[in-house]
Write a structure and sequence with these properties.
Chain lengths: ~950, ~600
């Protein structure tokens, strides 16, 4: 063991030694034009055999080349190309040419001639293919030159008859990309193109290759044809039955493109004299592909179906069509039977054998075994072997159903069936889909029954998706409501962790169906006309669930409160206070005096939002008058406004983000104002060290707040961002002034002055468009003085800054339309447990974390979990991208595990878990680092200037009791 | 013309006793070797005397292929190989090879030990028979001998069920065995590539049925079981040991897992346990879900399903029990049924078809009072449910397979004649291919149109390529000159020079000559010169020479002029050409017959 450790130590040691060694070659980066090409030239001349040359070329390809030296390099490469006898080297050179011509700022038209010339002398097919690829790159780089395109098309045409499939492939690609035939080009051809004997139009050339012997060429031909407007060719349809799956797949795409281009053109049906719309025909053909032999094609076909929204409803409904028969007798599907049973008032008998016995006899001639057209495409797709196909089919159903209510009604049964799929992903997807189309449908009782059966699923995702679905569902009868409530209570009983989700679900169920709930109320609240019933336990989650349902229904049903018993009113008051997000304000007769305040305060409905908005705006306006006020008055006003805004945010959830944002902004201003009004400014420098501390802290705090402002809120426009940056600039100025006053080190000061000036410049660069809005502000004044600032001495600069800071007023904040604060709530761990989590020290224990995130953009990259140990150690854990789910818009859910470990403790103690939002200022800066050349190496990237990275805690910390035990020996 | 002959010994317009003989390209193959459940006499096994009256079958069969382990497809195998006598290769897939002997042994036990039959195959015979088996893998091409090759495709139906593609030269036959085109909880769907066989021999059990989605059936089943369990009742599911039983187990197991149920599920022990073991092993033969998740957990390692003990039947509380046999006619399932029949909370679910006369059949038809042996009657109070789970392709599935394989002819077996008739009509109408449905012992002959492969010498091909257009156009046939050599069963196309060289023959020149009379008053030499100029003007692009010895040569054609003996004005032209220039020669002769135009000097 010891020896092993020693070895490890040595290993690491040697690594440390290596690092400076590695850095040395990086230094010789001298990128001058002659050296680059010359070096390459020398390298290539040195190469004695082809492998060497290949090595040099490979090395060369790893480094980027500047636009100005590209041409030289290209010449060198071409020169070697002519000399080279080895195919592989020529191939590499050809590919390098292609790469080089992609270099930004280099116009590749100068190498076209050479490339075309080499083409005519080339014998190797592989190299030919590569050269054509290079030409393709050049062609796409120069889209504006029709002459060049014509030439390239000519070249492609010439090589189309090559025997090697790769060459033909590339030629077709070239034709596909560049041979865009606008009508005039065809005529121009006759001028220069006499050698071709009149260039035929590109489509017909390409379509000739639909019959090529090589499937790869056929695929390429189809792909080249995609994106070309052309008349419906039957040839593409013929390729739908090709032997090779890639061809079929390309053909599906082709047919789809056609159907999108000419949806309304009329095509004849072969072997009959009827005619149908092209999109319908294509829909039928693609539907047919859903039962293809290759699952890749099936997936593609199913997905494609989802995007064909123009198809006529008649065809659409065929996709769900299935005619059953048994022994040549017509049989009804289970769906039909369920419907009939429901209609006849009997509910789910199905007890008898042969209950599904076939009834009438079928005429053998009418039975259609081969699905013609779109028949049963989705029936097939939903029963497919591969879950990828099933998911694609479910998604396609979703898209189609959203645009057609009648289809939504029809596909309901099928989606409900999918709730029973063996793969959870499919089940989940179908629940989501049903939610999305739920506006179009009303569930029947038997359907609801099937849906509700899933509530017992052990997977939390499924259950929550289903709750979400129930929130949006319309049901038809009061029995349905009862059924749903019953099942939800069962669910609550079985999985108590679902509490919140179930309550929320009942809230929506109640507010959606007040009239259906009304007749159930006495039963639900177990009231009796004569007798008083015992008061239920207020802490029972099931009882709360019932109350949530009833109260929400009562909101739009004024007759309901009359049915409540006394304790119900008491419970209402309690719940309204404790679960205000679930229980709406009710207008209760005779109790107005008690609850009046509550209901008036937040007011009913949307009117309150408007008034709150008005209030917000007024507060902001009031603040803008601050300049005219005395310092203390201004501070008071700010204080007051901040308090108002905070309260407003609490009351009006819709405006919480905006109110919070304003409050934070104003707090920054307040801090700044306070810092500037400190007495220290009047004091002599050596005396003010102490006061400095508060001001420095204020500056620091403002900085932090600005980062919060910038990254915690979504929906900001660039104007707000500019305002935030402006505040940050002020804070930085303040810091600078303070440093100048405390420390005497001139070098330090010069450095920070330079940095500050850079900041100002980058501000100017970033917010050029916003500058007019910032008139009379700090920055505005600074920019006026800029020429002077950049030349003057640090001390002078500081003085200027000081005065500007004090003179500049408050910048008016304008609110954007929608602004939301990113929030996170940790649902689990709850922090209530008294039982410590015990584990052996040195080993790890997994802690389940379940949190909801609201309004977080790109949580996969930004959200982190922080674990804080009592000894001050803190770990930041980056959850896996797969741990984030997206249950709704602007909402994410993080379900992950963090691993804890620590050395042994004597006592159990609490650790803190919280979520952090990571930010980096470079990520949002408007100048995203542009990609350098064709090589993606990052070595030459200059360090992003002043990229500030940090984290903002945005959830409440949760305490978890843990106890690492010493390992037993 | 070569022919493929197909003769069903069993399963021709019939279900059970599958045994089909195929003669293809001089090879004889037996597909499946099953027994008939309905008979207890000689009709139980296929009539092997059709192949040969006496002696062993080895000389007459090149191989035997078994599609899957159901007894109606492999039940007669030991009888054939050991008692009739066959020593050639027997092919089956790995799972079939593993499970087949268990079932054969069980079958033997019931027939010999229970029914007391003699003259039946013994355990040792089963073992000896299995020694002759060569296992197959999916999509693996196995060379039976130099010409015969077979390849297995996935067929669904039961674990290890396969379709076989049999190929001799360019002729091929596909035999499907039993297959299922819709996936279920433990098996995938049958799949075949576009192999375009000459004959597709397909089962047609459900020729006249189009089935509903399996999801509804499954949901119904699960709901019934779940409701009964919630009520505290006991559920009895009589099953046959293999195939559907595993399907139902998986279904219930996953449901229990999903719904977090706690009630116990029992599986009556016996051969099923052994079989489950093999199910665990052959994960690659199962469906996508099981294949993908077995790394975390093998689905056949049941968490909720435990072995059943007789005493458990009296335990209180809800439970689900799978018990054999499936028709409630004897054994454990009947015992449990008798115990539970009296309580209306309990339930029995019949997952399959029941033969008339069995208790299963009676209760399904609603009989509530059963007479037991010893004059006792049994009141049936428990609920009776019927749930059909079948793993055969329905009519649509069969059509889908035909679409996938694109056969030239179709042959239906393993189904009832009336139903086949319907499907036959449909197939002929939709695909316009011939469809056959031979009865047992009836031979169907299909003539094939085999392609004959010919080797062409590269030089010749290149030469022809150089002459014609740049690319061979698959749409247009092209003619070329060459010599076809048939030698030692192989065909070769070479250039004529090479053929001569190879065969050691001398080349013979073949020349055509003809006389053309021409009215021309000039001298012979002048006439010749006039002909020369005339031809020069007509035939551009040909080499025309006027030789001093008084001949004109156009390519290989020689033209001479002599005066007629009677009339000096009548010139006789002598034309001579080799047969390669036949076209040009005949053109010239007809041209010269028209005479020379006057304007030539």
């Amino acid at each position: 063991m010891a020896a092993h450790l020693k070895k490890r130590v040595y290993e690491e040691f040697s690594k440390v030694v290596q690092i400076p060694h590695e850095e040395t070659p990086a230094k010789k980066l001298r990128l001058s034009k002659p050296s680059k090409s010359a070096a390459l030239h020398i390298d290539l001349c040195k190469a004695t055999n082809s492998t060497d040359a290949l090595q040099y070329l490979l090395q060369f390809a790893r480094k980027p080349v500047e636009a100005e030296s590209v041409e030289g390099v290209v010449r060198i490469l071409l020169e070697h190309y002519y000399k080279e006898t080895d195919n592989s080297v020529r191939l590499k050179i050809a590919s390098l040419l292609g790469l080089l011509s992609k270099t930004q700022g280099f116009s590749p038209d100068c190498i076209v001639d050479d490339a075309i010339n080499t083409l005519s002398n080339e014998k190797s097919h592989q190299v030919l293919a590569q050269l054509l690829d290079t030409l393709l790159v050049i062609g796409t780089q120069l889209p504006e030159s029709p002459a060049l395109r014509l030439r390239l098309v000519e070249v492609a045409y010439k090589h189309l008859s090559d025997t090697y499939f790769g060459v033909r492939n590339k030629c077709l690609q070239l034709l596909g990309c560049l041979g865009m035939v606008d009508a005039p080009v065809g005529k121009e051809n006759e001028g220069p193109g006499t050698s071709l004997g009149g260039l035929r139009d590109v489509q017909s050339i390409i379509s000739d290759y639909f019959g090529d012997q090589d499937p790869r060429v056929r695929t390429a031909a189809l792909k080249a044809m995609v994106g070309k407007p052309c008349n419906p060719p039957c040839t593409a349809c013929r390729l739908l039955t090709d032997d090779y799956e890639q061809v079929r797949s390309a053909a599906v795409q082709m047919v789809w493109v056609l159907s999108q281009l000419y949806p309304e053109s009329i095509v004849p049906i072969p072997s009959s004299n009827e005619e149908i719309r092209l999109v319908d025909d294509a829909f039928g053909k693609i539907s047919h592909m859903v039962s293809d032999g290759s699952w890749m094609v099936r997936v593609q076909a199913a997905k494609t179906l989802g995007s064909m929204l123009q198809v006529s409803p008649h065809f659409l409904e065929q996709t769900l069509d299935k005619k059953l028969m048994s022994d040549l007798r017509r049989k009804r599907t289970a769906h039909e039977r369920a419907k009939e049973l429901f209609a006849s008032g009997e509910f789910s008998s199905g007890r008898k054998w042969a209950d599904d016995a076939p009834k009438e006899k079928l005429d053998t001639n009418t039975v259609n075994l081969i699905a013609s057209g779109a028949c049963g495409a989705f029936v097939h797709g939903l029963e497919d072997e591969m879950f990828e196909v099933r998911i694609a089919a479910v998604e396609a159903l979703c898209h189609l159903a959203r645009s057609s209510p009648s289809f939504a009604e029809k596909c309901l049964d099928f989606l409900v069936d999918m709730f029973n799929d063996e793969i959870e992903e499919v089940r989940l997807q179908s629940i989501h889909v049903l939610r999305e189309i739920s506006t179009h449908i009303t569930l029947r009782e038997d359907q609801l029954d099937t849906v509700l059966a899933v509530l017992e699923d052990s997977s939390r995702d499924i259950r929550e998706a289903l709750h979400e679905l129930l929130c949006y569902t319309n049901v038809s009868t009061k029995e349905c409501i009862q059924l749903a409530l019953l099942e939800l209570l069962k669910n609550l009983n079985k999985y108590p962790t679902d509490r919140n989700s179930v309550w929320k679900c009942l809230k929506f169920l109640g507010s959606r169906h007040p009239t259906l709930v009304l007749p159930l109320v006495p039963e639900l609240l177990s009231t009796h006309p004569y007798f008083d019933t015992p008061e239920p336990d207020m802490d029972d989650p099931a009882y709360i669930a019932v109350l949530v349902l009833v109260f929400n229904a009562a909101k739009s049903c004024p007759t309901m409160p009359a049915l409540f018993s006394d304790h119900t009113f008491r419970h209402y008051a309690y719940l309204r206070d404790s679960l205000s997000h679930l229980v709406p304000p009710l207008r209760l007769p005779g109790r107005k005096q008690v609850y009046g305040l509550d209901s008036v305060d937040s007011g009913p409905g949307s009117g309150s939002v408007e008034s709150a908005q008005l209030f917000l705006q007024q507060s902001l306006n009031r603040v803008s008058t601050i300049q005219n006020l005395e310092a203390s008055g201004a501070q008071d006003l700010l204080d007051l406004t901040i308090r108002d805004l905070q309260r407003l945010g609490e009351l009006q959830t819709e405006l919480a983000g905006a109110a919070d944002f304003c409050a934070t902004y104003l707090r920054c201003q307040l801090l700044l104002m306070k810092a500037l009004q400190e007495k220290l400014w009047n004091m002599a420098v050596p005396l003010c060290l102490k006061q400095n501390v508060t001001a420095t802290a204020a500056a620091q705090q403002i900085l932090e707040e600005t980062y919060k402002l910038e990254f915690l809120y979504s929906g900001l426009e660039s104007r707000q961002v500019a305002t935030i940056h402006h505040v940050r600039l002020q804070a930085k100025a303040l810091q600078l002034v303070l440093t100048a006053r405390t420390r005497q080190g001139l070098d330090l000061l010069i450095g920070s002055c330079e940095r500050f000036l850079q900041d100002v410049e980058s501000f100017q660069r970033l917010f050029l468009t916003e500058l007019p809005h910032l008139q009379d502000s700090f920055v505005d004044k600074l920019l006026e003085l800029m020429p002077r600032l950049s030349s003057c001495k640090p001390v002078e600069l500081v003085k200027i800054l000081q005065t500007t800071l004090r003179q500049s007023g408050l910048l008016q904040l304008r609110l954007p339309e929608q602004i939301h604060r990113a929030t996170a709530t940790i649902i689990e761990p709850t922090g209530e447990s008294d039982n410590p989590l015990r584990f052996t020290s040195g080993l790890v224990v997994a802690l389940d974390i379940d949190a909801t995130l609201e309004h977080v953009q790109d949580p996969q990259n930004t959200v982190k979990v922080q674990v804080l140990y009592p000894d001050g150690q803190s770990h930041v854990i980056h959850p896996k991208p797969g741990d984030f789910r997206k249950p709704g818009p602007h909402r994410h859910r993080l379900i992950t595990q963090v691993y804890l470990s620590h050395t042994a403790w004597t006592e159990p103690s609490q650790i803190e878990v919280r979520l952090l939002l990571a930010y980096s200022s470079s990520s949002t800066s408007l100048t995203s680092p542009s990609k350098l050349g064709w090589s993606e190496s990052l070595e030459s990237l200059p360090a992003a200037e002043a990229a500030v990275e940090g984290t903002i805690p945005f959830s409440k910390a949760v305490k978890v009791f843990i106890m690492p035990k010493p390992a037993r020996r | 013309m070569p022919e493929i002959k197909v003769t069903p010994l069993g399963a021709g317009q019939d279900v059970g006793r599958s045994c089909i003989l195929v003669s293809i390209g001089g090879k004889n193959i037996m597909l499946d070797c099953g027994m008939h459940m309905g008979y207890n006499d000689d009709r139980r096994f296929p009539d092997f005397s059709y192949i040969t009256q006496n002696g062993r079958l080895t000389d007459f069969l090149d191989c035997v292929i078994i599609s899957h382990f159901h007894l109606d497809h492999c039940g007669a195998l030991p009888y054939m190989s050991e008692m009739v006598g066959y020593d050639g290769p027997i092919y089956m897939t790995h799972p079939t090879k593993a499970i087949c002997p268990i079932l054969l042994e069980d079958f033997r036990k019931i027939t010999v030990d229970k029914k007391g039959e003699t003259n039946f195959f013994t355990s040792q015979m089963i073992k000896d028979c299995m020694k002759k088996v060569i296992p197959l893998n999916l999509h693996q091409t196995v060379q039976v001998d130099d010409e015969l090759e077979i390849k297995a495709y996935y067929a669904g139906h039961v674990l290890g069920a396969a379709m076989v593609h049999i190929k001799v030269g360019s002729e091929s036959v596909v035999y499907t065995g039993d297959y299922n085109m819709t996936p279920d909880r433990h098996l995938g769907a049958a799949w075949i590539d576009k192999c375009r066989p000459d004959i597709l021999i397909s089962e047609s059990t459900y020729a006249t049925t189009i089935r509903d989605s399996k999801r509804c059936r499954e949901r119904d089943f699960l709901k019934k079981v779940h409701e009964s369990i919630e009520r505290g009742g006991k559920v009895l599911i009589p099953v046959f040991a293999l195939g559907r039983a595993q399907e139902l187990c998986i279904l219930l197991e996953t449901f229990w897992e999903r719904m977090n149920l706690k009630a116990p599920i029992y599986f009556s022990t016996g051969l099923t346990e052994k079989a489950n073991h093999y199910y665990k092993l052959f994960i690659t033969w199962t469906n996508q879900k099981i294949r993908k998740t077995f790394v975390q957990r093998n689905m056949f390692e049941f968490k909720h399903i435990k072995a059943f003990d007789r005493s458990y039947a009296d335990n209180p509380g809800p439970m689900v029990v799978f018990a054999t046999p499936g028709m409630l006619h004897a054994g454990q399932s009947l015992q449990i049924f008798k115990k539970w029949a009296g309580n209306e909370k309990n339930m029995v679910i019949m997952p399959g078809y029941c033969v008339q006369g069995t208790i299963g059949h009676k209760i399904l038809n609603g009989q509530r009072k059963l007479e037991m042996e010893g004059r006792a009657t049994l009141d049936v109070k428990l609920q009776v449910e019927y749930m059909s789970f079948s793993a055969h392709a329905d009519a649509k599935g069969i059509m889908q397979l035909i679409r996938m394989a694109e056969p030239r002819n179709m042959l239906l077996v393993h189904g009832e004649a009336v139903k086949m008739e319907f499907l036959k009509g449909k197939i002929e109408q939709e695909f316009s291919i011939d469809c056959y449905m031979p009865a047992n012992g009836e031979t169907t002959t299909v003539t094939t149109n085999p392609s004959v492969p010919v080797d062409i010498s590269l030089n010749l091909l290149k030469r022809e390529m150089a002459l014609g257009g740049p690319l061979p156009d698959p749409k247009k046939p092209r003619t070329m000159h060459g010599t076809l050599i048939m030698k030692e069963n192989s065909l070769k196309l070479v250039s004529s020079e090479q053929a001569l060289k190879e065969l050691g023959l001398n080349e013979h020149q073949l020349r055509f000559t003809c006389h053309v009379q021409l009215q021309d008053p000039h001298s012979d030499a002048d006439t010749l010169h006039r002909i020369y100029t005339h031809l020069k003007s007509v035939l551009k692009g040909y080499t025309i020479q006027h030789l001093p010895d008084g001949t004109v040569i156009v390519e290989s054609i020689v033209i001479k002029v002599s005066s007629s003996t009677e009339d000096s004005n009548t010139k006789v032209l002598l034309l001579s050409w080799s047969y390669q220039d036949e076209d040009l020669g005949s053109f010239l002769s007809s041209l010269l017959k028209k005479g020379l135009p006057s304007g030539i000097c």
